[in-house]
């Protein structure tokens, strides 16, 4: 589709807000605490931070570079940069990952709507920690509610994506993300002043080196990719909407810092409460949903804070789901030459089918198991810990070894118009450090070496 002006972000803040909107989401507030809780606490955080700096930033900048230089969806981008070569497979893998991620991520987004609803009707009021536990497990094992909320969320996502980039995605993210940040800070203050908060902070910040395992490191890598929205072409797609005048290096750095900050702040809100209320840190996917309502009960104005919080959480999830759906829609509309509307409809229908199974993973389809993982767990693990690192590996290899330093430099400096003093460091990272780190962590984590 070569017709007319390609849709693009309208302002610098809009770019950062949209990319940060993609990155910041349930990955930070729901997934980060639960994965950290299952993987030894502080040691996980330490490895996570190292991997984000060494691997995350180079992959993100590589994606922006590929996207902006080709103005294409991930599949089309590789086709354009390396015609007749099999690199387009990396793009295709990203599209497949997008389907899988949306299918389980939107399910959790649906849970946030249920919790928003419960907050509004004051459904947590006066419940004990045990009762809050039961409430979550009961809801999730239900037949219709998780599926219904999932479908509603899918519909909301599709509705925004149909409206396009500037009038849809950018408009919403720009206003709402700063709010979320402030509210998490408020919750942090409450959490660290709970009696017994210290235990939680120790768990989060004090690395216990005896708890490192190959699996922990792979989980940290997977979480880093997931949280930064990298490894499947979301940021190739967003990069394709970024104006040539923007400094991509700055954008990547700012987005990474913002994303990491929110994850750590979420941890500071959650873990003191986990210990103060005697919740198991390794409680898994329900962790946040079992902890937050208890914090709100302990806050003056808890009712109103809980309503605002779950609203913002749902919105943070929405700015992420739209970025994933956008990848599939850009692919369909550009490669099949169909309208944005038709592409959105097609993509949404396909994801909805897959997602119904994920939403019912504790209910209708609870019987579907592979190695004690349900369908939801399989989608979560496979995408974050396998498909994203694999995609990220090929993306940095491509930018480091195949795209050509001149082309990369031209893109990062806008053909010499702006400075990119970090170029040598970036080239070193994408050629050697990032691919090696990913390969080692990956093979080690899967037990291959
Ligand atoms: N990063 C988002 C979050 O943390 C989720 C997300 C959006 C994502 N786009 C992605 C994850 C692409 C992996 C790949 O909530």
Order of helices and strands: HHHHHHHHHHHHHHHEEHHH
Assigned CATH superfamily: Hydantoin permease
Bound molecules: tryptophan
By DSSP, the count of extended strands is 2
The helix-and-strand class reads mainly alpha
Backbone shape: globular
CATH class: Mainly Alpha
Question: How do the helices and strands line up, and which of them pair or pack?
Answer:
Elements: H1 12-23, H2 26-38, H3 42-70, H4 74-81, H5 88-120, H6 129-140, H7 145-162, H8 165-192, H9 197-205, H10 214-228, H11 234-239, H12 248-276, H13 287-297, H14 302-335, H15 340-359, E1 369-370, E2 373-374, H16 375-402, H17 405-412, H18 423-445
Antiparallel strand pairs: 1-2
Helix pairs in contact: 1-8, 1-12, 1-14, 2-10, 2-12, 3-4, 3-9, 3-10, 3-12, 3-16, 3-18, 4-5, 5-7, 5-14, 5-15, 5-16, 6-13, 7-14, 7-15, 8-12, 8-14, 9-12, 10-16, 10-18, 12-13, 13-14, 14-15, 16-18
This protein binds tryptophan (TRP).
Tryptophan is lined by residues 22-23, 25-28, 101, 226-227, 229, 232, 234, 320, 323-324, 388.
